[in-house]
# Entry
Amino acid sequence: MSELHPSMDVDERAPAIEVRDLHKSFGDNEVLTGIDFHVDHGQVVCVIGPSGSGKSTLLRCVNRLEEPTSGQILVEGIDITDPDTELDLVRTRIGMVFQQFNLFPHMTVLRNLTIAQQRAKGRKRGEAEQIARENLAKVGLGDKEAAYPAHLSGGQQQRVAIARALSMNPDMMLFDEPTSALDPELVGDVLDVMRKLANEGMTMMVVTHEMGFAREVGDNLVFMDGGVIVEEGDPVEVLTNPQHKRTQSFLSKVL
# Structure
């Protein structure tokens, strides 16, 4: 998968994502306070917790959309907090899906999927379109390539956003509450796509409020509160038998 990038010193034995003593402050407000965790290749790690617990900030630090205050983040063994790291090259390995779909409203679905491929990957238009069509089919929207985002439901737009991320051939996917902006009846289609990706072995880190998805699909569940990881473990174990009082209190309100 060289395309425009030179080879990178990826450590195949290293975790897909490794976070070491991560701190993040916004002014005097410390949002992350010494986070340590890792995501192995092929693993689905779900991150849950109340609003303001630092979940999304953690996710955004993993591809440096937020600048960590201190600590280390390694992606496939590459320290992305090292100022000498070519961040754009590392980011080509990380797909990201946000709460909002961030599609270009003036472009068709197909063009939304090809523009980054051509600019960041250097793909020819025909190749980019073929890859885009394959990924639209994967998310069940093969018949929508000529549509504009305004003509799609929120759930369809989010599936287009997932297909766009997949079209860059990432090694891993980050999801930041991908269903929270959707009407309840549209959530299932998006979760089905994510479930399919997990079954295909995609490495995924998912910030979510969907406890059923976390229980069924997650390999590891992380509960955050107050900028720290309060509890983590097997999703079924954490959800049915939480050990920490704060986890028990949170789950009693959402389950």
